[in-house]
Amino acid sequence: MRVFKFGGASVKDANAVKNVVKVLREVGYDNTLLVVSAMGKTTNAMEDIINAYFNDKQEIPAKVSELVDYHHAIVSELFPNASHTIYKEIKVLIDEINGFLVWNKSPNYNFVYDQIVGYGELLSTTIISAYLKEIGIANQWLDVRNYIKTDSSYRDTTVDWELTQKNVTNIDKKVLNITQGFLGSDDNNFTTTLGREGSDYTAAILAYCLNADSVTIWKDVPGVLNADPRYFEETQLLNNISYREAIELAFYGASVIHPKTLQPLQRKEIPLHVKSFVNPKDKGTTVGKGVGIEPKVPCFIVKKNQVLMKLSSLDFSFIVEDSISELFKLFHQHKIKVDLIQNSAISFSVCIDNKFGGLAALLQQLKSKFKVVHHENVSLYTIRHFDNKALETLQNGHELLLEQRGTETVQLVVK
């Protein structure tokens, strides 16, 4: 069995949905499970609805209307018959969104986020499943929340592998299945999410539990590149990457592969293919068991909107294990992700991601015990397999705030 994952760009409009069909017909879809993301920028639209709910409820109807209009434009092109049942199915999902926003009493932003944002995936898979049936491709629509079970750490949950494995065993491998990425559910059947870009992780979870032959992530790029083309002008396709190398790249923030995706695949040696949905017959990139990376070229990774903090002791005492342990407890408490650390006898520098907005509260606590200097909106560049030319490319014109170098990897924090 194969698992295919289609991201938002691959289903962003009616033509994109038709292209998914083209891909399936070219590469086959027997014994295949499709994991599909929300269409286009729908997740951003869902976040706008959530922000309106917390900040200005009068904006909610307009935001929901934009969501409806976007999906109706796609549906009207795919289903010219206005009496098709898909229109009622979409209305049911929209009514569920509005209903939750009325009856919800929880002030917990992360809980509300997870209950609303996942409707993007429910809408996209409902539409695509109906379209496949409309053109004669039989398929089974699955609600992934009935299969992937998690804890209740909303927006960044941990998978209950034992229960998930038990549930996934019930999936019929003999038919074409379609389900949602990014989502799960907790013990109370409330929706949970696996983190942004978590659809890749969904594909890996299901592949692991199904003992799949492979996972293919369909992208708008030819495969895994040595740099993000949004930020770097010259990029090169990586033909083959070992699990170990791919995990290193993902750890440092490579955007093509979700950091959690590779671990379950490696455990069962399930190969991961990253291919172009524009040219589906091209080879793309294969991640699997092997040595290193081919071709071996410098790989550039950038994380924007980071925060660099330098902490030093108020009394010039050493920063030792107890101090560092306390710092990491605070990072965990405020949901701060640490991307780089560097320490000396009396100072500790750390580059962090303020994804959950805990920086202000963290700084307040830190300043009671440390001298704190921090820089916001910095960029963290990582170069794997660096050489002098690669370093010169990044250092040119940037104000360097911190550098950390190993035998294979160099990291630079710049303004």
Automatic annotation (TrEMBL):
Residues 2-276 form the Aspartate/glutamate/uridylate kinase domain. It catalyses: L-aspartate + ATP = 4-phospho-L-aspartate + ADP. It comes from the Bacteria. Keywords: Amino-acid biosynthesis, ATP-binding, Kinase, Nucleotide-binding, Transferase. Pfam families: AA_kinase. Pathway: Amino-acid biosynthesis; L-threonine biosynthesis; L-threonine from L-aspartate: step 1/5; Amino-acid biosynthesis; L-lysine biosynthesis via DAP pathway; (S)-tetrahydrodipicolinate from L-aspartate: step 1/4; Amino-acid biosynthesis; L-methionine biosynthesis via de novo pathway; L-homoserine from L-aspartate: step 1/3. InterPro entries: AceGlu_kinase-like_sf, ACT-like_dom_sf, Asp/Glu/Uridylate_kinase, Asp_kin_monofn, Asp_kinase, AsparK_Bifunc_asparK/hSer_DH. Gene3D superfamilies: 3.30.70.260, Acetylglutamate kinase-like, Aspartokinase, catalytic domain. Its EC number is 2.7.2.4. Belongs to the aspartokinase family. This is Aspartokinase.
